[in-house]
Amino acid sequence: ETGVTQTPRHLVMGMTNKKSLKCEQHLGHNAMYWYKQSAKKPLELMFVYSLEERVENNSVPSRFSPECPNSSHLFLHLHTLQPEDSALYLCASSQDGLAGALQQFFGPGTRLTVL
Amino acid sequence: SQQGEEDPQALSIQEGENATMNCSYKTSINNLQWYRQNSGRGLVHLILIRSNEREKHSGRLRVTLDTSKKSSSLLITASRAADTASYFCATDRSGSRLTFGEGTQLTVNP
Q1: Cβ-defined contact of A43 to B100 (cutoff 8 Å)
Q2: H or E, element range at A97
Q3: Residue A98 contacts by C-beta under 8 Å, 6 or more apart in sequence?
Q4: Which site among B43, B58, B63, B94 would you substitute to test the A interface, given the most A Cβ atoms closer than 10 Å to its Cβ?
Q5: pLDDT per residue over A14-45, tens digit each?
């Protein structure tokens, strides 16, 4: 509905598993983002890609590894996660501009549970 | 406190009443945005107000911005049960990066 899709919508994984989250945007935007949303906390920006180049990594643990093969696709590779990584992971896209941050379009999120 | 703090944290009203949520921020901004999130879903953009604007309307939404006080308010008039959601303000700090507050949980009772 918003032009940004995420798969899977729900994911349960053990601490030793490796999984990937996928995000796709159909809006022709040039910037994509990964956010983490935990209960009772503000959205945390994890990664930003602009024109397929990673421009920001907010000190995210290395067990989270992003990949942006083109301007429409964004992945988040997960390995050896901890239970505290359980959260809603949101992908967003926007048209990067010079006049400040513009409207971001969010996907529905992936609800991740780490056992 | 964090950039983009909403107040109150939770608000419960009856259908038909107006709902007002406030947001305060610390540093200078280019614009301020309001988003809505239904439980466990993605955020939906509601309205963007630029730093040189003081008030903006969109349907039943009215947003004000006071840059001297570093604050904004979101007013939802004639609320409906379907307006029940969390509402977030977001401020831009550099480039396209947005900083979100913790949100206000609005409950509109039928």
Answers
A1: yes
A2: none
A3: none
A4: B43
A5: 888 899 999 999 999 989 999 999 987 889 99
